[in-house]
Write a structure and sequence with these properties.
This protein is of the alpha/beta class and 335 residues long. The protein is built from 13 helices and 7 strands. Helices cover 56% and strands 11% of the residues.
């Protein structure tokens, strides 16, 4: 067998392993504008695949040729928002939904989420927090205005509201392991402090609603830690939630997703900026690293009563101090 055929078989085997031969066949016909017979010949190696065809297919299937042919030497990452046109908050939510939907539909899939900050899906289920964070992200990543404005009447259109709810449900549709730390709300608190001092909030009432929402969020975290179940899922079989506490500290948000079809690693640089890799070596290395962290962590969901109570005691004391400082700042900047 010549080298051309070996590379061609390797390429198509990689594509098929991530989906199915029927999907690869149909998408290849679409990408190359070829008939079924011509694609079959390329898939079985009787017709040579040109370099331009291989590159076109790699782009169409969103795979890296490094991952296919150089897995021992190179690790590639895909940035979903790296494009010429300006991204928007709708692009972000739509792309998030695109990646999370298979989580709810693939059987035998599971997620591991190593959280520097609180897993972002918890924020999606709280409207005031969500509005606040979208305003921050919009200012930092999408909006050309120089001044940050946080308006309680910010329009969240029907499509975005639908995506917000769908993402929360998708995340709740699969067994999940989360690794928390007691400082995972600190960045949110710091953002609130700063936004008060620059008078970004257009209404003091919205700040109060935000405080109430954060209080509800902490109660939700206590509930899921106590039950070991997603609070929005009725699927008892795929509702398992294991939460570990690790206070050694980590500086990345890493989500590992594994199903029968593929494995993927999501690395959060800064929300909403994240990168994705399907490189199997990167996934296995990241998985071993997180397993090592997990072994040095304490399980606080369902069991681990003492550690769970100490964790939430700190979380609630931190929230109390946060609330008191917010009220003092409001007295200065929103008198």
């Amino acid at each position: 067998m010549n080298e051309q055929i070996i590379h061609q078989e390797t390429f198509f085997k990689y594509l098929i392993a991530r989906s199915s031969s029927d999907i690869v066949l149909n998408k290849t016909m679409e990408a190359l504008q070829l008939g079924r017979g011509a694609v079959y010949k390329r898939m079985n190696g009787s017709t040579a695949l040109t370099a331009s065809e291989m590159v076109s297919l790699a782009k169409h299937f969103r795979v890296s040729l490094d991952d296919v042919f150089q897995t021992n030497k190179y690790m590639s990452f895909f940035h979903p928002f790296w494009k010429d046109t300006k991204t928007t908050k709708m692009d972000f939510m739509d792309r998030f939904a695109y990646y999370f939907k298979p989580i709810a539909t693939h059987e035998h899939s599971h997620i591991t989420y190593l959280a520097n900050e609180l897993p972002v899906t918890y924020y999606f289920s709280h409207k005031s927090i969500f509005r606040f964070l979208v305003s921050i992200w919009n200012h930092l990543h999408w909006d050309e205005k120089d001044r940050l404005t946080i308006d309680e009447n910010m329009v969240i259109d029907a499509k975005m509201e639908k995506l917000r709810n769908e993402i929360t449900i998708y995340y709740s549709g699969s067994p999940v392991i989360e690794i928390w730390n007691s400082n995972m709300l600190s960045n949110l608190y710091q953002q609130v402090y700063f936004c008060i001092t620059i008078r970004a909030f257009q209404s003091a009432d919205f700040i109060q609603r935000l405080l109430n929402d954060i209080d509800r969020l902490i109660n939700q975290l206590r509930q899921v830690a106590l039950s070991g179940k997603h609070h929005l899922s009725n699927d008892e079989e795929n509702n398992d939630l294991k939460i570990y506490l690790n206070e050694y500290g980590n500086y990345a948000n890493v989500l590992l997703y594994e199903s029968e079809k593929f494995k993927g690693a999501f690395v959060g640089m800064d929300m909403p900026q994240f990168m994705i890799s399907y490189n199997p070596h990167f996934y296995e290395n990241a998985s071993r690293w997180i397993d090592n962290i997990k072994q040095r962590s304490v399980l606080i969901s369902s069991e681990g009563l003492q550690y769970r109570e100490l964790f939430f005691l700190k979380l609630e004391n931190d929230f109390k101090a946060f609330k008191e400082r917010v009220e003092k700042l409001m007295g200065v900047y929103y008198e």
